[in-house]
Design a protein that fits this description.
With about 130 residues, the chain is mainly beta. The chain is built from no helices and eleven strands. The chain has strands at about 5, 10-15, 20-25, 35-40, 45-50, 55-60, 65-70, 75-80, 90-100, 115, 120-125. Strands 2, 4, 5, 6, 9, 10 and 11 form a seven-stranded mixed sheet that branches. Strands 1-3-8-7 form a four-stranded antiparallel sheet, with no helix packed on it. The protein is globular, with a radius of gyration of 13 Å.
Length: about 130
């Protein structure tokens, strides 16, 4: 059974930083596009960032310059560094993986393009 375990969320003040992690339990990230999504209360889930097997990232405009996605293929781990956090970044953050493109990612980060999901980790930013 595929299981992604994400962690690292918490409560910070505006301007603070967090680092989210996602580990593939009984699932190798090799050959997968990996991504991060978030969902705020009352809003749809939105793509935040994705990264190919060859470490090429894509970001949503709302987080460019503040968030950094990375992966460690040897450790089977995905990361999201969140800097300069704003109250609007408050949401449940989910990691995701998909093998369809054998390590490449689509140009647009879409929920429907990812087959496997973590359980979510909460990020709360206070002003």
């Amino acid at each position: 059974q595929v299981q992604l375990v994400d962690s690292g969320g918490g409560s910070v003040q505006a301007g603070g930083s967090l680092r989210l992690s996602c580990v593939g339990a009984q699932y190798t990230f090799s050959g997968n596009c990996l991504g991060w999504f978030r969902q705020a209360p009352g809003k749809e889930r939105e793509g935040v960032a994705s990264i190919t097997m060859k470490y090429n990232p894509t970001y949503a405009d709302s987080v460019k310059g503040r968030f950094t996605i990375s992966r460690d293929n040897a450790k089977n781990t995905l990361y999201l560094q969140l800097n300069s956090l704003k109250p609007d970044d408050t949401a449940m953050y989910y990691c995701a993986a998909d093998p369809k493109l054998r390590g490449d990612c689509y140009a647009v980060i879409r929920e429907r393009d990812f087959a496997y999901w973590g359980q979510g980790t909460q990020v709360t930013v206070s002003s």
